[in-house]
Predict the 3D structure of the following.
Amino acid sequence: MMTATTTATSAAAHPVAEGVVDWAEKRYLLVDDFVGIRQLLRESLRNLGAKHIDQAASGGEAMVLLAKTRYDVVLCDYNLGDGKNGQQVLEEARVRNLMLPSSVWLMVSAEKSVESVMGAAEHQPDAYIIKPITEGVLLTRLNRVWHRKQVFSEIDQAFADKDYLRAAKLCEEQIAHHPLHAIDLLRMKAVLLLKSGDPDQAGAVYEKVLEERDYNWARCGLAKIRMANGELESARLMFQAVIADNRFYIDAFDQLAQSFLLQGKTEEAFDVLGKAAKLSPNSVPRQRALGQTALKLGNIPVAEKAFRKCIEMGEFSVMKTVDAYLGLARVCGQKNDVKEAIRLLNAAVHQFGGDQVELRAKITEGLVYHESGDYRRARKSGDELELMLSDEHKQRPDAATCLDMATLLFSVGVKEAPIGLLCYVTRNNHDNVPLLEDIQKIFDRARMGEEGVALIKASRQEAADMMNKGVLLWKTGKLMEAVEWMRVARKALPHNMRILFNSAQILISWLQQTGYVRGLADEAIGVLMHVDAIAPGQPRFAQLMEQLALLAPVSGVAAAAAASEYEAANGAIPGTGAD
Amino acid sequence: MDEEEAQRHEGSPELFLFLASTVHDMKNSISVLSGTLENLLAAPAPESTPSPEYGQMAQMLYQTKRLNDNLIQLLALYKEVGKPGYPFDPMPRSVRELVEQASGQARILLQSRGIALDIDFPPDAIWTLDEDLIIGVLVHAINNAIRYTRDRIRLSVRIDGDYLELRVEDNGTGFPPAMLEAGVSAMDAKRTNVDFISNSSGLGLYFSSEVAKMHRHRQRSGGIALENGGALGGGCFVLRLP
């Protein structure tokens, strides 16, 4: 037992935590729309010795300052009056990379915040503080966040390098040393195991946590694994149990809706998404899901409201999405307001730009014309689409968009372009049986069933041949030729997962034999980053990344550099944030 | 509290949004008021300049803290603390940090009124709790003890079997019988609604008992009790968490 006595006469000393941090030399940003609060907080920070303190009265002002200076500590009120709220400032600062990994973000609110326990926001602050803020609480929370960042720094680095297996091992090592963070470390470990494609181990971690206490995130984590495993009914019951226990656990709503969608119960999913959107309407992905589900059910008023909300939120948020514009255009088309639909599509192309958006806007345009019975204009959109696709150098969109596109093109009477698209998707997914079945159905509906069978067979064979040739060269020890051949194969089939993995595997074998060569290692990392972007959470990805990390003379650095190069060239890799 | 919650209050979302922004403003005002008073009170050493203003400011700070306590509790009640809708967030926390924060909030107020604070806790203990709520309960108990103490308050924490026991004790003449009864009825399982006794202690006890009961672990739940005696011979507020 430690006994400490403070009396009224003793010198006013701040409680000192172990591992003391020098808070005097840090750069601070205070964001609050009330000048009195800013003065008060500035006074408190000065009492901690702080010298560099900037202030912002609005989200907009905060963004200007954040773009100029890398702050060590940001104290931001959640409620900032008109314009961006604190969460939107945080999201934009993180997405635009305006914060250092070591920076601390404290979100201030007038009372216990719902956001802190929702479990869904992708970008969480490091801590929440309730007003009135006293120096003692501020210092304790700053020290706590700083200490937590120390514990997690190596893990976060390995995470950023996508060396998930090493990061998971680091979590395990830290648990013994830091009992206070044990639960957090286990939570991170489960996320990492999932990312490395090992749901069984991740599930075991969640079960272990649940033996200690009924944490909702662990229950949801376990249910998500069940859902991915196809145990939809059992997952549904678990999500519903979490909601019964905590009506604010919004992540459970979103997942429950997903489990209904997978069961083909669109009505039920719609109902749950509606409830979730009522509880927490300020989420772009949630409103998008609601809008798309409503559109599927033909519930035009709800779809319209959801897509409009999405667009409205996008005004102040970096999370804005072109999907809302495309969805709303479909809604307008179904309301026979073709003019407004076309205006929205033009706005989407204007605001978001890029080949992919232009393609998707054109498909939607064709659909709107087709659904409104204007077959002449629909055909014209189809022809324009075909022209856009004729440029072989342009990257094709994701498989789902390609299938939509092919469906539309067939329905407006175009033949060559959709066949090309479907063969392209087949070559790139030659062993994805459910997808190939969907492709066959599109051929069937276009009354090209038999041709389709032959085309799919030929495309699959083409992909298999390319892959087998590379593997044969590799197995017979002609590594150099195998590497060369896989480059050709990658160029021909840029989205074929098997080819991408084999290509990386062959590069790594080459490095293992000849020793580390920076250029080849970067090539392998580039390939792996690409495959992780199109299909995250593959076990082979984690294994190959770990093998590469072991080969590198300096841990992490090479991978991080290649990853950021990849992101610069291709946009941010989706799903890199912690769950 | 914002637009999101306004949506839940379907009856009158406008009124709810208005209330939310009023709460936001009130919190800001109270923050500035108590912050300014604390800065003023912390500046001079109390013994060397025993000015009458000092005592008045100390009284103002005490009243401001009570105002804040009551506002927190009213809000928690309004948002149905104890119900599944309340944003309850238990996490493993360091007992040292909990005590640090609770005592830090009361430090200047106690100092200004010449009341000593004894602290006693196991420094390495970790317990799973909702930190903001528990700090709220402890600070309220300390502010309440100020009314009953002579010149000393003791905040102590210890692990007692499967429970964490937190005590706020004073060296006054003890709680009056009505207060002790209110403490018992706050934990009465058959109680259907708040038994508001004449002063604000009823609200505080109700809030504390709801917070205690929200903390559940393996069929055990937390509780509060009021006693007389304890280490300092006066009133004792006891909070037990599983």
User: Anything to note?
Assistant: The mean pLDDT of chain A is 85. The longest strand of chain A covers residues 104-109. Chain A touches chain B through 56 residues (CB under 8 Å).
